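Most newcomers find our protein records easier to grasp once they have seen one. Sequence and backbone structure share a record, each on its own labelled line. Nothing more is needed to start thinking about how sequence determines fold. As an example, a complete record with its sequence and its structure tokens follows.
=====
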Amino acid sequence: MAPTTKTFSAGSILFRENDRSRDMYLLHSGRVKVYRTDKGQRVELCELGKGGIAGEMSLLDGRTRSATVEVVEDVEATVITLDEFEKKSHQIPEWFMAIIKILCTRLRDTDRRVRASLDSDTVANVATLLSIMINRKKEDSLSGNDELDLKFAKNEIMEILCLSHEKVTSSLKEIENQELVVISNNRIQIPDKNSLELFSMYKRGEISDSSIEVGTPLTKEAMDVLRFLYETTK
């Protein structure tokens, strides 16, 4: 039986996170929204439109759905079932299928690691994002100033980490108390980006020393210890 083309109305669900369905959808028109639920909150990942593919990983590796796909604008899509895929897969070299399945496994593992990292320590994640934003700004601009617009930085952090404004503000305050950033005149100044990165790694437990207390501002000596530990373990 050949793949069929179906129409899905806005508001319908193609599949839900953790479902064991295996169908894959090739979108010809319309739009779908991809999201997952994290600690009871909806986290939107992306939107797909004409030419997009949804559900390919579960079709290939047989594992449960990693996200929910909801139709936001009437969709016309070709539905590829597992039976239809298996009828064609014998034409694909075995080694090629093996590579595809390995890539799917690696993608899922990367996703798991990212989610675990984001759960590890909010302050560490905020510090990491500040470093990333500074690096991006320096790459995109001739300006060598290590500073960010406060409102822009907060909005970026809230969107990427799905945090409330209050949580971002409190995290920035803790980082400021560590004397790693200076917040004034609606700007965030970062005197030493390397120290900020070391602090985020320490908070996340990637480098540690029992003699260093994170509850109070890190001294120059403590930072020197972290740098030494980092250099000897990387």
